[in-house]
TrEMBL record:
InterPro entries: ADH-like_C, ADH-like_N, ADH_Zn_CS, ER, GroES-like_sf, NAD(P)-bd_dom_sf
Record-given protein name: Alcohol dehydrogenase
First-level EC class: oxidoreductase
Co-factor(s): Zn(2+)
Protein family per UniProt: Belongs to the zinc-containing alcohol dehydrogenase family.
UniProt GO MF annotations: oxidoreductase activity; zinc ion binding
Ranges annotated as spanning the membrane: none
Organism of provenance: Nonomuraea muscovyensis
Gene3D superfamilies in alphabetical order: Medium-chain alcohol dehydrogenases, catalytic domain (3.90.180.10), NAD(P)-binding Rossmann-like Domain (3.40.50.720)
Every Enoyl reductase (ER) domain range: 8-343
Keyword annotations from UniProtKB, A to Z: Metal-binding, Oxidoreductase, Zinc
Pfam families: ADH_N, ADH_zinc_N
Amino acid sequence: MRALIYHGPGQRSWEETPDPRLAEATDAIVRVDAVTICGTDLHILKGDVPAVRPGTILGHEAVGTVTATGSSVTTVKPGDRVLVSCISACGRCRYCRTGMFGQCLGGGGWILGHRVNGTQAEYVRVPFADTSTHLLPEGVSDEAALMLADILPTAYEVGVLNGRVRPGDTVAVVGAGPIGLAAITTAQLFTPSHIIAVDPAPARLEAAKRLGADVVVGAGDDPAAAIAELTGGLGADVTIEAVGIPETFELCTRLVRPGGHVANVGVHGRPAILHLEDLWIRNLTITTGLVDTYSTPALLDMIAAGRLDPTGFITHRFAMNDMAAAYETFADPKSTGALKVVLSRP
């Protein structure tokens, strides 16, 4: 088969490599029918994730067809269409038994494209197949389901639910990339009064308006003034950080009102200053987190029922063999306008 292999910082290639084989009784082999690229993959290529060893197949999001299963797998069988989750779960450890699959102690968590070979390939071995794949209902497209592999549950769980968005809230989302847009989309499930998107890129602000933001704040605008005007000077009830740099985290702590919530979703590569000398008196709640994907079944039901359509995040489509072009497009959103790219089997 062919796969996208990491060869060290700045080095990747779409090349021939042996097909995966069942290694454990709990494994499944999945033929990848659609796959996407995540910002985390770009972090890996920059050398920001040293746990990823050269020779690893990248990717942790896919939709595909099961071709083989281990002897212990009972919930999926060859021929089934499945979503491959970005988080693998042993299903038995202390954390899995409480729904904290991202913290799995039994060999799961974020492992695909990280500690084991991932999904940017023609076939992938999926550990713990019973608890790490989701059967796809009839009528749910590969592209729609693919958005549930990572960005929708991440934004929903770590941003909207951890931030405790409630009806009537004012919600400010700082960063209108794929995760920020997914937070805007899923925040609407709780009928907030206002959703404000903050981002310097005009194309991303256009996408934010299309996907449900009421107010957008671009480069040169003052987000604090815009939010103060909407809230009588109080500030946002919830701010969601969806970039992962110190400046945007600190901005979120300034935009939130006393008693509000700051939900950090972005992956930070540098330390951010926590100004406790200013924040302690404001009764703030600050949360962080890795997605657990416990919400995936509910989000999948919403798609099947026609209540949620995440295909609006997709801006570019490629054949799977065009992996190099897809990476170049995704890595240069300023000139390409890329949000999510989808690569499909011919």
